[in-house]
User: Fold this.
Amino acid sequence: MKTRRRFKQTDVLEDRLAKQAKVLRDQAEKLAPGPQREELLGKARHCEDGAHISELLRSPNPQPQFDAVPGYYAYIIGNDGHVQDRVNVICDAEEEAKRLARQLVDGHAVELWLEARKIAEFKPED
Assistant:
């Protein structure tokens, strides 16, 4: 019978996932916009999501978290028209979400969404 090789982790899962996310984002920054870059950024987001889920499960009294506010998201759009990043916009009203999303415009267009509905688009001033 083959014996299993065991390895005791010295870092907690959340730390390992955060480190991996940073490595992936650093690699993505070095690439030109395109599918390979988007794939690395997606993997980085998955690592960050996994770290967050693990952290919630490790808490002494894990409680389901329900958003009391609508789910606004601001998507940073690259020059190639693809999404470069997503920012959660936490606020109570659409006008406040628009104001906050407008502040994210820094050489790139920003799209503001409420769940699956596009609310507004902000383009950089030329």
